[in-house]
Amino acid sequence: MSKLSKIIVELVLMCLGDDFERKFESEFSNCHGYLRIINYSPPECVKEKEVEGLGMHTDMSCVTIVYQDEIGGLQVRSKEGKWMDINPCEDTLVVNIGDLMQAWSNGKLRSSEHRVVLKRHINRFSLAFFWCFEDDKVIFAPDEVVGEKNLRIYKPFVCADYLKFRESNEKGKFEKVGEILKEYGNQMTKLSKRIVEIVLMCLKDDFERKFESEFSNCHGYLRINNYTPPECVKDKEVEGLGMHTDMSCVTIVYQEEIGGLQVRLKGRKVAGHKSM
Ligand SMILES: O=C(O)CCC(=O)C(=O)O
Ligand SMILES: [Fe+2]
């Protein structure tokens, strides 16, 4: 996605004017990207009326590359204020211009207003890759970009200040996703402690007393896996994740109803228990 973002920015610069792609090196070469993975779980009431999964916003990036699954729901607002569906299309990514690019281009490129609307009671999954200026960059549209006859629209500003400003204004917008994951993490930490205590008890009487001295500083992390099987799965099963052991003390896995987890028992593969 970083490579693709660079190519996209270079193309966008070429569209702004002849020779503008040369600005890439001096202005965009320190950009960096981050990925947001969103799993939308629509509420029950979606059966009666559509609900907003993500409210109208603009992205705090130079450009954003979005992958949405086949459920759809991404909408962009036209200049006239009409919501237009961005229908999912196989092998297609969506590119949004973000606020930083709007400012850098003196408004020649417009940061798209978009949202996500959920219409069916089915989970929706998306990946958004945000390509941004470095935090300490002062964003100031170059004179050549503004053009001799045009007024400068934006005063120079530091990228991090803008991000802070937006974040303090939008507290709560992405909290729903964050809060759920945080709570899940807390519960899993509690459960891991309980499991380790029980495992210690199974090792030997009184071993649970080892917990305090040996395991009390343990910490956990969460990995969200989304497996997309290749076409050839129709003919033969494929390994989504090869044989491995976990580099943890204990791992707690939730798998959805599709199944596929297997464990090897003394040389044999055995289907993972659904209720794990
Ligand atoms: O889920 C999507 O399709 C879009 C996500 C998005 O716009 C964002 O995370 O900023
Ligand atoms: Fe967005």
Kindly describe this structure:
The protein contains 7 helices and 12 strands. The protein is of the alpha+beta class and 276 residues long. The model has no long low-confidence stretch (mean pLDDT 89). Helices cover 28% and strands 21% of the residues. The protein has a 4-stranded antiparallel beta sheet. The protein folds into 2 domains: 142 residues, B-lactam Antibiotic, Isopenicillin N Synthase, Chain (Jelly Rolls, Sandwich); 91 residues, no CATH class. Strand 4 and strand 5 form a beta hairpin. The structure holds 2-oxoglutaric acid and fe (ii) ion. It holds the Pfam family 2OG-FeII_Oxy. It comes from Nyssa sinensis. Keywords: Iron, Metal-binding, Oxidoreductase. One of its GO terms (molecular function) is oxidoreductase activity. Belongs to the iron/ascorbate-dependent oxidoreductase family.
Distance N to C terminus: 34 Å
Overall SS class: alpha+beta
CATH architecture of the largest domain: Sandwich
Radius of gyration: 24 Å
Sheet having the most strands: 4 strands, antiparallel
Query: Would you tell me the overall average pLDDT?
Result: 89
Q: Keywords for this structure?
A:
276 residues; alpha+beta; Jelly Rolls; 2 domains; 4-stranded antiparallel sheet; 7 helices; 12 strands; elongated; binds 2-oxoglutaric acid; binds fe (ii) ion
